[in-house]
Design a protein that fits this description.
222 residues, alpha/beta
């Protein structure tokens, strides 16, 4: 067999493999995409805990409050912890110029939880001005939770955010805090059809991008 014939044969083999790969993806794309969506979800069975923590980074915050109220009313958490009060450089500049908010940063969340049956005295608000992602939220809020003397918390967040959030919190507070991951049941994320909705596509791509960045930081030590 000549050299040219060998090259043609090799190119044909590559073409066949590409066609088979494309056919596989076409035939089984729903299964693969569904598995991608399901991988992001970690839903533990909730047990009696010191508090239920509502994460505030990311999207779909209100379903998290609804879930927290439900957890509290079931007697699975003695307190609800909310966090917020994020401050950007621009907001700090405006505050330095005299801007003041119309109400405290936690008031809306407090009112929603009260409306859903959680008494205000059972809600703890933690200010985390410099938390801008899941990692920094865990660092800032987790430190306060440890200082409060809590040993076990229920971590409440959006469905697509549960696995990564639980991984970060469990790794960061291993041996110090028992973390149970629970998703917001009214969250609109659907792992079986997320690729059909533009909003959910953004969520999934962002979440996988965050996983990549999380491990990139570990590898590069940045």
């Amino acid at each position: 067999m000549t050299e040219q014939a060998k090259k043609r044969r090799g190119l044909k083999a590559i073409a066949v493999m590409l066609i088979l790969a494309i056919a596989f993806v076409f035939l089984f794309h729903s299964v693969l995409l569904k598995q991608m969506g399901e991988f992001l979800i970690r839903d533990d069975i909730p047990i009696k805990s010191d508090a239920a923590l509502v994460l505030n980074t990311g999207l779909e915050y209100y379903p998290r409050l609804i879930e927290a109220a439900d957890i509290y009313k079931k007697g699975l958490a003695e307190r609800i912890i909310i966090n917020g009060d994020r401050k950007t450089d621009s907001l700090r500049y405006l505050e330095a110029q005299g801007f003041t908010s119309c109400c405290t940063w936690y008031e809306d969340s407090m009112r929603i939880l009260e409306m859903l049956g959680v008494p205000r005295h059972s809600i703890t608000a933690i200010s985390a001005e410099d938390a801008y992602d899941t990692n920094t939220e865990a660092e800032d809020v987790g430190t306060e939770i440890i200082a409060l003397g809590y040993n076990r918390i229920i971590l409440i967040t959006s469905r697509f955010h549960t696995r990564r959030a639980a991984h970060i919190w469990k790794e960061m507070y291993e041996g110090k805090l028992d973390v149970i991951s629970v998703s917001a049941k009214t969250d609109p994320f659907d792992p079986a059809s997320w690729w059909k909705d533009g909003r959910q596509i953004r969520w999934v791509l962002s979440e996988y991008g965050s996983w990549i960045f999380y491990y990139w930081k570990k590898v590069t030590n940045i």
